[in-house]
Design goal:
The protein has about 280 residues and is an alpha/beta fold. It is about 40% helix and about 25% strand.
Length: about 280
């Protein structure tokens, strides 16, 4: 199985493609990474060096893959650093002459805070609206689906309204909302269509982790490609990610914090290979 993954790259740490590639390799995937950044480490370490990849380079790399006849069973779109990059990736998706599983995480922000260029929002909207159905499955978090639908989720009723609004606006079959806080309990929400949703409760680990969303994205792509069953895929992905987070917490000595919350900037993926495989 072959997957093409558009996401960030760091030399040190486990975010972006560094959190996607190893788990998918362990599960039998050949992973080709197109890196949207090339950084020393991610900004969670408070200082970093490096640069964003320019759109022309992304386009050129992809053309090289086309010229040697490569096709992919799945395409992952993770962290995208700029509007030109996202527009380039949208063009690549539109030009595909075959139908891989396309999983897009519309990375905009979290906890009511935007941490990318706000001009990415309309580009994500155009990709999700495309009449050709460019995206098979999208995985926004609560803030991101609220941003994409101009809704606010505070309870089960408003969650239903947000999901309905998403399907009114966008041409995507499957939706996973990766984190929704309802009544003090965290859930992952799976949507098969506007009328068929299910919830998976998440046992919260008492820390904030960088890279957990990227790990989630890669694992969800793997299981959904194999099973075509979103509920099975989501339950499995949540279980594996939670066990990796707990292992990481157990093995982490360094103590950083965000406010009063423990912050862990790197997942222990190598140390968790027995969980991931």
């Amino acid at each position: 199985m072959n997957v093409l993954s558009f996401s960030s790259h760091v030399v040190h740490g486990t975010v972006g493609n560094r959190a996607i590639q190893l788990p998918l390799n362990l599960r039998g995937w050949n992973v080709d990474c197109v890196n949207t950044t090339n950084l020393s480490n991610h900004p969670g370490f408070r200082t970093f060096k490096g640069s964003k990849t320019d759109a022309a380079t992304i386009a050129d790399i992809y053309e090289g893959l086309v010229e040697i006849g490569l096709e992919y069973d799945a395409v992952i779109v993770g962290y995208v650093a700029s509007v030109p990059n996202l527009e380039c990736i949208a063009d690549i998706l539109a030009r595909l002459s075959y139908k891989p599983l396309v999983v897009l995480d519309p990375i905009l922000g979290d906890n009511d805070k935007l941490y990318v260029d706000e001009n990415l929002i309309p580009v994500y909207k155009r990709i999700l609206q495309d009449p050709a159905g460019l995206v098979t499955l999208t995985s926004p978090n609560q803030f991101e689906i609220e941003t994409l639908t101009d809704t606010k989720i505070s309870d089960w009723s408003s969650l239903t309204a947000s999901v309905t609004r998403f399907y009114d606006l966008y041409n995507v079959r499957y939706v996973v909302i990766t984190s929704v806080d309802l009544g003090g309990t965290m859930y992952c929400i799976g949507c098969l269509d506007r009328d068929t949703t299910f919830a998976v409760a998440v046992d919260q680990v008492p820390a904030v982790f960088s890279g957990s969303g990227d790990l989630f994205l890669g694992l969800l792509t793997d299981v959904f490609h194999r099973t075509k069953d979103l509920e099975t895929s989501l339950k499995h992905t949540v279980d594996v990610v939670q066990r990796v987070l707990k292992r990481t917490l157990e093995l982490t000595d360094a103590k950083m914090s965000i406010g009063s919350t423990l912050y862990i900037p790197s997942l222990k993926l190598v140390e968790s290979m027995d969980i991931i495989e």
